Automatic annotation (TrEMBL):
Family: Belongs to the tRNA nucleotidyltransferase/poly(A) polymerase family.
Protein name per Swiss-Prot or TrEMBL: CCA tRNA nucleotidyltransferase
CDD domains associated with the record: HDc, NT_ClassII-CCAase
Domain Poly A polymerase head: 21-143
Keywords: Magnesium, Metal-binding, Nucleotide-binding, Nucleotidyltransferase, RNA-binding, Transferase, tRNA processing
SUPFAM superfamilies listed in its UniProt record: Nucleotidyltransferase (SSF81301), Poly A polymerase C-terminal region-like (SSF81891)
Source organism, top-level taxon: Bacteria
Domain CCA-adding enzyme C-terminal stretches: 296-436
Length: 458
């Protein structure tokens, strides 16, 4: 196992003091899979105070000290060094109330979640694998260390981690582990929104999240996180363009969407409100008028519940609200208006969402026009999309023409902005000022006529 110099240096310090130390958990698992670890955790029989003494001179963090963990800043980032421990009782479904330090590495490994994460390694002793994690990696089976129900009752987040690892490591859940996930799924409701969101984000950013999401739905786990999706399962869309159930279609779109959180969440919720908007025409064909607007609102509520960043929620809502407003043929005028309405930051993502949506409809419609459209949008944005900030005239110019600030000025600026948006060549100061003078004169004449009428007919 090739180690970064920073880890070798830390191990050397323990070796010089005659204290055993092991790499543990994900770094060992990833190395066995031929994956370069992105972080390293160490474990040792040394107490936190002894760890601090061994790592003297290095920047350390003691926030996890009561659980036996000292974090040490190294050249590759912070590395957690934890004393061998036995976890006490769990009363919050998340962390042990207390821990007991031990000198037995196997006792420490026995408290961990899955066999593939319960392996340790040191250059002196090699691999320590008391629960068969290496064989489970080879056989692609995710098993709990000991009783899976107990593992989940200790820390409910392990239920979501099981499904995440299932997809991340391309494994199958051990039948006992799957059964325990079903029975213990209710515990997910005790988890913080941030913890749930972190795991769901990792699941959605996998290459093909559908495999994991199907398994979560079957186990009754998905409904604990996104109950809004339950009505889509097995739902017949009654539409010749859709040969899949609604849930199948949604997960297909998720898989086809590019791997970014806004697009994956938009794909997951883009049709969530179809069951609420179904109408049947005289030919028996299903329609879902308004599901895009309702879906945007639903997605906003879900992401707020997960305490997601506002920027993520904002883009997801825009993408869902606009996903039915992409047409096969659109003029430059229509495209400029769409770009302004959707936003230059989101417009290309909208077309990526549409491409994924189209790939999952009956017959997989040709999306060549999407690629051409994106190229045209880029060209239009390079030319510049007119907005209030780039309009050649401003409120100050209208005041100079004698117009008072107020609603009428706002309407005139909007009128000129729309005019320049539709035809960028009109965004020229002299031309717009001439137009503004004409409109101000018309407005004044209309106001004078109204005042004269009032005087004649008080």
């Amino acid at each position: 196992m090739k180690l970064p110099q920073a880890i070798e240096d830390a191990i050397r310090r323990f070796r010089e003091k005659g204290v055993p130390v092991y790499i543990v958990g994900g770094a060992v698992r990833d190395s066995l899979m031929g994956i370069t670890p992105h972080d390293y955790d160490l474990t040792t029989p040394a107490t936190p105070e002894e760890i601090l003494a061994i790592m003297a001179g290095e920047k350390t963090f003691r926030e996890g000290e009561k659980f036996g963990t000292i974090a040490v800043m190294t050249a590759i980032g912070p590395v957690e060094i934890t004393t061998f421990r036995i976890d006490g009782t769990y009363t919050d479904n998340r962390k042990p109330d207390a821990v007991t330090f031990t000198a037995d590495l196997k006792e420490d490994l026995a408290r961990r979640d899955f066999t593939v994460n319960a392996m340790a390694y040191s250059p002196e002793t090699g691999l320590v694998d008391p629960f068969g994690g290496r064989d489970d990696l080879k056989n692609k089976i995710l098993r709990a260390v000991g009783d899976p129900a107990r593992r989940f009752s200790e820390d409910a987040l392990r239920i979501l981690r099981a499904f995440r690892f299932m997809g991340q490591l391309n494994m199958t859940l051990d039948p006992a582990l799957l059964a325990a996930a079903k029975n213990e799924a209710y515990r997910i409701e005790s988890l913080s929104a941030e913890r749930v969101a972190d795991e769901m984000n990792k699941i959605l950013l996998q290459d093909a999240p559908s495999r994991v999401l199907y398994a979560m739905e079957e186990a009754g786990v998905l409904e604990k996180i996104f109950p809004e999706l339950v009505p889509t399962v097995g739902y017949d869309q009654r539409n010749p363009h859709h040969d899949k159930t609604l849930f199948d279609h949604i997960l297909c779109v998720v898989d086809h969407a590019p791997k970014t959180l806004p697009l994956r969440y938009a794909a997951l919720f883009h049709d969530v409100n179809k069951p609420d908007t179904l109408t049947i025409d005289e030919n028996g064909k299903g329609h879902f008028f308004g599901h895009d607007t309702m879906g945007a609102e639903t997605a906003g509520r879900i992401l707020a519940r997960l305490k997601s960043q506002k920027a993520l929620s904002r883009e997801v809502e825009v993408l869902i609200k606009e996903h039915m407003k992409v047409h096969d043929t659109m003029t430059d005028k229509a495209l400029r208006r769409q770009i302004k309405r959707v936003g230059e930051d989101y417009i290309l993502d909208l077309y990526d969402l549409m491409a994924a949506d189209m790939a999952c409809t009956y017959g997989a419609r040709d999306i060549a026009f999407i690629l051409q459209r994106k190229a045209r949008i880029r060209a239009l944005m390079d030319e510049g999309i007119v907005n209030r900030n780039t309009l050649a005239v401003s409120g100050r110019d209208l005041i100079a023409l004698g117009m008072a600030p107020g609603p009428a000025m706002g309407r005139l600026l909007k009128e000129m902005e729309d005019m320049a948006l539709d035809d960028p060549e009109t965004n020229e100061k002299e031309q717009l000022l001439a137009y503004a003078e004409k409109r101000i004169a018309e407005e004044n004449a209309a106001n004078n006529n109204e005042e004269t009428t009032k005087r004649r007919h008080p």
